[in-house]
Amino acid sequence: MAEQYDIAIVGGAMAGATLALALASQRRPDGGRWSVALIEAHPSAEPHHPGYDSRAIALAEGSVRRLERLGLWPALRSHAQPIDQIQVSDRGHFGGLTMTADEYGVDALGQVVELERVGPVLWQALSRHDNITLYCPDGLASFSQQQDRITLTLNSGTRIDARLVVGADGTGSAVRQQLNLGLERQPYHQHALIANISCDDHPGIAFERFTSEGPLALLPMNDRRYSLVWVQSPGEAARRMALSDNAFLTELQAAFGYRLGALTKVGQRVEYPLALCRAERTTHHRCVLVGNAAQTVHPIAGQGFNLGLRDVEALADRLNAALQSDSDPGSFALLAEYAEARAPDRSRVTAATDALVKLFSNPVRAMALGRNLGLLTLALFPDFKAGLAKSAMGWSGGRPR
After folding, report:
1. 200, exposed or middle or buried, with CB in 10 Å at 0-12, 13-18, 19+?
2. Is 182 left (phi over 0), alpha (psi -120 to 50) or beta?
3. Angle, vertex CA 37, rays to CA 161 and CA 49, nearest 5
4. Residue 195: inside a domain, yes or no?
5. In terms of CB atoms within 10 Å, which end of the chain has fewer, N or C?
6. How far is CA 396 from CA 104, 174, 241, 270, 298, in A?
7. Structural domain that includes position 181
8. Is the Cβ–Cβ distance between 335 and 41 less than 8 Å?
9. What is the pLDDT of residues 326-340, one digit of tens each?
């Protein structure tokens, strides 16, 4: 006998967990609520102080507001490092740009949070809702679509019936693969090398520095650390992975400069290949993809999770309207409306990040001159700069309510 739910979410990381929490708090005037199943392969770790190598993500200012709306930000605030300023520069060229929180009347342009801190906070919140059932550790083995429901069979053998299935299970989405939805994959022939860095100074500034190899980003973290994302060729990434810590810091210092004083420590280094991935469709019969299952973008502008959170907000709003009218959460009309609403933002961000990669990873002199003139124009003309700031703060897809 299959367990019965209104909505099943496959994937319990950031996108899936925030969606489950958004749905759990929705109520009709008569008290009716959604029943939600959340399926996740990896249990969240117990709360603890993360080690030096904890990985971090940047939340745009708009994403922070969205998390406030979901009631999640108060629990995360103490684990966040505000971004007071963003500095953009091009190594060896004159172009540069600075944006500050004061310019745009916000407390911070964004916040950097450690994933090892966020996971336990989200899972503690999930455990407080009796209309969310966690299947963890477990995963999707197969499913079959019927007219009024989808039956999921999990790796454990458990069977679940749901009126709507949400794929929030990342770039290698099992939901997308089960549906045979096409995936457009455009490799960048670049690798991202990530690590945590300590330095002499810690001014709460996020840096995006463009080099002939690719962008180099440093995001401020707690405990006087910076989170490094250094995009480079696969060969250079492999070579730098093999360097001693001191030799690596020497090369990083040469590429970045001394805006943070001396770089004094590097933690564990990890590299991974970069590609633009887009599902050809984000909806199917009683199924919808959100976050990285729908699109995975280059980290050049830090837009990945922020774009996914806008997916979550848009889907949650439409499901809340369906709950209020006691209508079907997996209806064709609801999913079509969601897909149409998200298409412009999804297309804009994927196209913009792809264009930035091609523009700022190109060593051709004419391209370098053009991009530096562009940075200079943005710096000199406030209206142009404001457009870039809105994108960086996560407002371009619709300022959060």
Report:
1. exposed
2. beta
3. 160
4. no
5. N
6. 14, 30, 36, 31, 18
7. 3-185+275-392
8. no
9. 999 999 999 999 999
- Residues forming a β-bridge with 228: 195, 218
Contact 180, 280 (CB under 8 A): no
Q: What are phi and psi of 282, to 5 degrees?
A: -105, -5
Q: Which of 170, 156, 169 is nearest to 8 (CA)?
A: 169
Q: Cβ–Cβ contacts within 10 Å for residue 96, how many?
A: 15
E strand segments, 84-204: 85-90, 96-100, 110-114, 132-135, 140-145, 150-154, 159-167, 183-199
pLDDT digit string (tens) for 52-62?
878 888 898 88
In contact, 11 and 44? CB cutoff 8 Å: no
Beta bridge partners of 279: 183
How many structural domains compose the chain? 1
Measured over the CA atoms of residue 77, residue 79, residue 85 and residue 86, the dihedral's sign is negative
User: What would you report as the CA-atom Rg of the chain, rounded to the nearest whole angstrom?
Assistant: 22
A 10 A CB-CB count for 12 gives 28
Strands 132-135 and 36-39, sheet pairing: parallel
Given this model, what pLDDT does residue 102 score? Answer: 87
Sheet of 80-83, strand order:
56-60, 110-114, 80-83
| Residue 255 contacts residue 209 (beta carbons within 8 Å) | yes
For 118-173, what is each residue's pLDDT tens digit?
A: 888 888 889 999 999 999 999 999 999 999 999 999 999 999 999 999 999 999 99
* Residue 223, domain member (yes or no): no
Give the Cα separation of 330 and 150 in Å (integer).
10
Question: Residues 27-41: what's their mean pLDDT?
Answer: 94
Does residue 234 form part of some domain?
A: no
Residue 368 pLDDT: 44
pTM beyond 0.85: yes
Residues 6+ apart with CB under 8 A from 272: 191, 192, 194
Is residue 197 a contact partner of residue 179, using CB atoms and an 8 Å limit? no
Give the sign of the dihedral formed by CA 265, CA 268, CA 273, CA 279: negative
Which pLDDT score is estimated for 96? 66
What's the confidence (pLDDT) of residue 15? 93
Instruction: Supply the CATH number for residue 163's domain.
Output: 3.50.50.60
